[in-house]
Each structure stands twice: as C-alpha cells, then as structure tokens.
C-alpha cells in the first residue's frame, strides 16, 4: 500500500484536530472538577475569584481564549497547508500561555494542564515539521 502526499496531509490534519479535541475536553473537565472543591462554587457566586472581579470584559476575554481549541478542531481540518501550520503553531503557543498563566495549584488542575500542554506541544511539533 502506497501512502500519497495527500493521505499523509489528511492524516496530519486528523491527528492535529483530534489533539485539539483532547485539549478542549481536558479544559472543560479541569473546570468541572474545580467547582467540586469545597467553597469554590460559593466564591464564584460572589462575583470574585481570588480577589479578581468576574467582570463582563474578563468573561469575554476568557470566552475568546477558550474558543481557540474549539475552533481549531474545525480549522485544523479545513485550512490549507501553509495557513494550517501557522495557525496551529500560533494557537498552540497562545493556549499554552493561557493554561500556564491562568492555572491553579490544585493537583487535579496540574494534571489536566500537563496533559493539555503535552498535547499542544505535539500539535506545535506536528505543524512545525509538516512538509507539504
């Protein structure tokens, strides 16, 4: 069986897209488990977490950053080669910075964040080494 360049390209798109799915689910479940920590949900309901006010602007910024893995699932499958590489590298770096910078020191979060960062490093590596 011979693998053509097109098949390799489609496989790479699928792998990268699937890694973005893994990142997205890890982000969701890290947050879900965080709400189960005693007192965490009560703190969120006050409108401030760790002294940071949950303003509309902050929530919009968080929504925009959290949208990156969601949209990358789709974009990784449909963008052309050059744009796909560049967008995946950029999105991976931005998302790694968000995960590390906005993180928690809770053990479950560190575990999920580690998986997320490893997946994003794999995405960046796959995109970086991708030859058309």
Folded structure, characterized:
The protein has 132 residues and is mostly helical. Helices cover 78% and strands 3% of the residues. The chain has helices at 5-35, 40-45, 56-78, 81-101, 107-128, and strands spanning 48-49, 52-53. Strand 1 and strand 2 (52-53) form a beta hairpin. Helix 1 packs antiparallel against helix 3 (56-78), helix 3 (56-78) packs antiparallel against helix 4 and helix 4 (81-101) packs antiparallel against helix 5 (107-128). The radius of gyration is 17 Å and the shape is elongated.
* Number of extended strands: 2
Tell me roughly what share of residues is in helical segments.
Answer: over 70%
The run of helices and strands is HHEEHHH
Work out the count of structural domains.
Answer: 1
Mean pLDDT: 88
Strand residue percentage: under 5%
Strand order of the largest sheet: 1-2
Structural class: mainly alpha
Secondary structure tally, helices: 5
Distance between the termini: 20 Å
- Tell me the overall shape: elongated
Low-pLDDT regions = none
Largest sheet: 2 strands, antiparallel
Calculate Rg over CA atoms.
Answer: 17 Å
């Amino acid at each position: 069986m011979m693998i053509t360049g097109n098949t390799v390209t489609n496989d790479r798109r699928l792998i990268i897209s699937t890694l973005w799915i893994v990142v997205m689910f890890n982000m969701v479940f890290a947050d879900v488990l965080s709400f189960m920590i005693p007192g965490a949900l009560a703190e969120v309901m006050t409108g401030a977490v760790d002294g940071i006010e949950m303003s509309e602007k902050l929530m919009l910024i968080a929504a925009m950053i959290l949208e990156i893995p969601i949209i990358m699932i789709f974009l990784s499958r449909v963008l052309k080669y050059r744009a796909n590489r560049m967008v995946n590298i950029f999105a991976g770096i931005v998302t790694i910075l968000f995960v590390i910078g906005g993180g928690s020191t809770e053990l479950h979060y560190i575990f999920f964040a580690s998986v997320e960062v490893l997946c994003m490093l794999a995405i960046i590596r796959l995109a970086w080494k991708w030859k058309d």
